[in-house]
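name: query_chain
kind: protein
chains: 1
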Amino acid sequence: KLEEFLNFKQLKTSLKEAILLDYYTAGFWWAKEMDFSLVQLSGFMDLLNFLLENLRDKHMTLGDNLKELGRAMAGIGETDSEISGDLSFFSTEQAKAIIDYLNISLFKHYKLYEYLFHNPGEELVISNE
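structure:
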C-alpha cells in the first residue's frame, strides 16, 4: 500500500525507491507499535517526510535539519496554545521516543541518505563481452 501511496513505479530496479519504501515502512510500523492514534501516526509520517524533503530538496546539513526538527517539535507538552506547535498532539514522552527513533533511523545514517539523494547512480552497461 505504501508503494502505491508513494507512487513508486520502479521499485524493482530503483535502489532509491527501495530504500525510501523501507524507511517509511519501518517508521510506520514503529509508530503503530507505539500505539499512536491515527492523527499522531499521520503527524509522525509527515515529520519523516518533512525531514527527508529537507535533505533531498533543500540539501540541508545534519545540523540544519536537527534545528528544523527542534522547531517542529517546539511546544510539545505546553498547555498554552500559542506556544504549542503543529505536533502538540504528542506527549512529552512520545516526543522523546520520536527523537530517539529519528536519531537511530535517520540522523545516525545521514551521510548515507545524503549520498542516496545527491550522488548519481551508476550506469548499467550491458554488452556482449
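note: The chain has a mean pLDDT of 85.
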